[in-house]
Structure formats: C-alpha cells, structure tokens
Design a protein that fits this description.
The structure is a homodimer of 278-residue chains.
Chain A lengths: L1 H12 L5 H10 L5 H12 L8 H19 L8 E2 L2 E2 L1 H4 L2 H20 L6 H15 L4 H10 L8 H27 L5 H25 L2 H4 L5 H4 L5 H4 L2 H18 L8 H12 L1
Antiparallel strand pairs in A: 1-2
Chain lengths: 278, 278
C-alpha cells in the first residue's frame, strides 16, 4: 500500500495551502485504508493494475474520512478522538472541521472527474455510485437512522441491520462496485452488492463490539461511546458471546460466497481475513 | 422559471423520504435562483434550450444551498434566519442541518452524473468545474478567508476582493462556465471567468451593504449580522456613499464587457439589471 500512500501524498500537494487543507491532510492521515484495500483486491483478482483504481480509491477514502469528521462533531456523536489522535474539531476548530469535511467531499468528486486514465463513461458510472451510496439514499441515511436510534426502547435485529446496511454497508458496496466498473464485470453487480453488504454488517458489528471490549489505545477512539450516546447497537440486544457467534456465522457465509467466481477471489479473501483479525 | 421550479420539485420526489430530505427540500425552497438564471441567460443568448441545463442548474443551486446551511451553523456565522424563514438548524436540529448540507452537496454531483441529455465528456467537464470552484481551492477557501477576517484590524480593498472572489465569485463563474460547456463556446473561458468574478464582487458588495441598510423583512436574513461577527466587509473601509459609487462603476464595467460578443448578451444583461435592482 506504500505506493497508494505516495499517491495520496502527491495529490495533497496539488491542493491550495490553507488551514482547511491542513485539517483535511490531518484527517486523511492514519486511516487503515480498508475500503481502498477492498478495491485493490478485486483489481488483483482480475489481474488488473491497481494504479488504475488509485483516483477512485482516494475519492472513496476522502468520502469515508469526511463522514468521520462530521460524525465526530459536537452536534453529532461528539467524539474527541479518532484514528488514535484528537478528532478534527478538537485538533483544529469546529468550523474548520465542518469545512474540511465539506472540502474532502467536494474534492472526492473532482478526483474521479480528473482521472484521465479511464474513460469519461467509467468516471460517470463511478461518480453515480459514489453519490448514490454516500448520499441521502445511502450512507447519510444511515447516519440519520443511527442518530434516531439514540434512546430507542425497542431495538430489533432488523433495525440494526438497516442501520448497518446504510451507515456502513453502502461505502463497502462502493468499494466493490468501483473496481467492478473498472474491470468491466458489471453483470455481477448483485454479487458485489451482496458481499459489500455482508462486509458492512460484519464491520459494524465488530465496531459495536470493540466499543465495549477494547481499550481506546487499541481502537484509536474512546471506548463506550455508543452507550454514552445511548445508541442502538448489536450490544443492545445481544450478549458478547452471541455477537461472537453471529460474527463467525457471517464470516462463514461470506467465504462461501467467494467460491466458484469468475475471478481469483484469494486477494479479496485475504482482506476479509484481515478484517476478521482486527 | 416555473418550468425549472417544476423540475426541482420532480427531482425532489425521487429522493428517499426522511427528515434529512425534508430539511433539504425546506432549504432549497424560496431561493431567488440567481445562479440558475445566469446559466439560462447564456443558453438563451446562444438560442439553446434551457432544459439542457436543468440538471446542472439544479446541481449548482444545491451546492449554493448547502453552503448557506453550513454557513448559518452555530460554529460558523450562527444566523437564525435565511430566505425569510428560520435557518435549517433552527427549523430542524443542528445535526440534521449538517447532514442536509452534506446530502445536497453529495446529491449535486449525482444530478449532473445522471444527466442523460448530455455527453459523458460534458458531464465530466461540469463536475470538474463544480468540484474545483466549490471546493477548497474555491468557495470553501472563501469561507475560510471570511471566517479568518473576523476581528481583522487592518482590512484592505485587496483583502475584500480576495474574499469576495472566492466566497461568492467562484459559484458565479460556475454559472457561466456550465452553459459555456453546454453550448461549446470554450474558447471564451476567460470572458466567462471575468464576468462571473465581476458579478460575484457586485453581489457580495451589495450583500455587505444590504446587511446594514436593509431590514430583515427585505433581505430575509438578520440585519447587522456582519458587524455582530466583526466581519471584514466593504463597510469596514468605505462609507455607504463610496460603496454606491463603487457599485455604479462595477456595473458600468460589466455592461461594457458584454458589448460585441459572439452571442446575444441581452438575456445576460437583463439578469445583471435584476441584480442591479435587488
């Protein structure tokens, strides 16, 4: 991933110097790049060059990062730490955090639009996925459901799945749909959506669990933030043991989905194994 | 403009129902549509169909509207009224306002991407303009300069022009560059940038002036908001009379720019006259 990190650094150099750029760079730094890794795993599986996906992968990481900045704001989850350091509104000012999030989101679409390595049509297809899956019919809808779940007295599995699918699943689906466009494997859209949704659920259930069982040092963000905000999470209706069982079942299912595919799924499997071990 | 308003309403119907959509629709409603009007005036001047520009015009209006929502937030200018009604964080909640702004910005790029009436290449060109002129090298940079100008002890004309050019001029330039792409008149990019910048300066100087000399009933937003926030505005270094003289000079200059062009500038002139009379 070093070459992709260099690509990010080089791209950052093209931006106008300002306090907002500083905040954007600060926020982008230190991410685990799970979403870009997923993109690259599909490229690898098709024997396609990773570099072809760099612009789109950066765009997706920018959108993910903007969502974290805005999610941490005092009027949202009010979290002071993220990625092992002060969240943006704490390291800078609250208004800089709002603008840095806006900047990352706006820039993301420009990054794809300026990707001269792929056709105009592919750029438009990717922008459509980013806009619909990150927007009010996607991730933002998930943020709303998540906020509305606070202080819920009757949490159900269906409710949690809906939150996870929008809040977390949508961008993971995007991580698989972007390379699908790039390698022109669009007849398997349903498969990519299914795998992305499953990874999103797993990832969110893990996050819910880690919020309770891991320390701030391990996760890079405060523990017990969910219960502080009285969020509906997997822990609201399941014991830690039940959640571990559920996760094992989800991982089995996702590995089964990867069998007998039209590309080498070993790379994708390896990323999912990394998620399993996190 | 009725047909464009119908287009906006129809587009809104395609969005997933939620409190955030309600806030987006609320915010979009009641705008004066100066930026779309400018787009249409160029289309008219070239004898091109306005409908061809509807998607892009809606996208630009969405971006303008998102910027107002975030600009009004407590951590930014903290304004309670906008477009003659409560600002979004007052009519809804602060977190809904953040998400509604994010939603409008994200959706804007999707609106252009989904515009099947124009080529993929034109959509990409328009998205590039939107991203660069609304982003950290454009409007957002202007927001930063504007915030940084608060409590400035040494305000200069150059400083004000820089703020106005980024904060307000960038989207007005976009209003002229979008139709330029659509009618394929790209060799005159400099002209469109120049006129857009001038309109931006005029518009911002007027806004600075109206903040002092007009009532909230007339402008739809609180009076004296700038001095409350100790902003650097045209009023910081000029008397009302000097500003009126400056505006007259700017209008003379812009009308001169419109003479002997390769299209009928009468429609553009009419919109500028509307701006002169507002």
């Amino acid at each position: 991933m070093n070459s992709f990190e260099n690509f990010i650094n080089d791209y950052e150099l093209t931006m106008i110097d300002s306090r907002i750029k500083d905040a954007m760079v600060y926020a982008l730094d230190g991410g685990k790049r799970f979403r870009p890794s997923l993109i690259f795993s599909i490229m690898d599986g098709f024997g396609a060059k990773r570099e072809v996906a760099y612009h789109s992968a950066l765009a997706l990481e920018m959108i993910h990062t903007y969502s974290l900045i805005h999610d941490d704001l005092p009027c949202m989850d009010d979290d002071d730490y993220r990625r092992g350091k002060l969240s943006v509104h704490k390291a800078f000012e609250e208004n800089t955090a709002v603008l840095a999030g806006d900047g990352l989101l706006t820039e993301a679409f420009g990054v794809v639009a300026k990707d001269e390595g792929i056709s105009f049509e592919k750029r438009i297809k990717i922008i459509k996925y980013l806009s619909s899956l990150a927007g009010v019919g996607g991730m933002i809808h998930g943020q709303l459901l998540d906020l509305q779940s606070e202080n819920s007295t009757h949490v159900t599995d269906e409710m949690l799945e809906e939150i996870d699918d929008y809040k977390t699943g949508c961008l993971f689906r995007c991580s698989l749909l972007i390379p699908m466009v790039l390698v022109e494997d669009e007849e398997h859209e349903e498969f990519y959506n299914m795998v992305g949704t499953k990874i999103g659920r797993i990832f969110q259930i893990q996050d819910d669990l880690f919020d309770v069982i891991k320390t701030q040092e391990e996760t890079g963000k405060p523990s017990n933030s969910d219960s502080k905000n009285a969020k509906a999470t997997a822990l609201s209706i399941n014991s830690v043991d039940e959640i571990r069982k559920k996760l094992n079942k989800e991982f089995d299912e996702i590995y089964n989905l990867l069998v007998d595919r039209n590309f080498n799924t070993e790379y994708l499997r390896n990323i999912i194994k990394k998620i399993e071990k996190r």
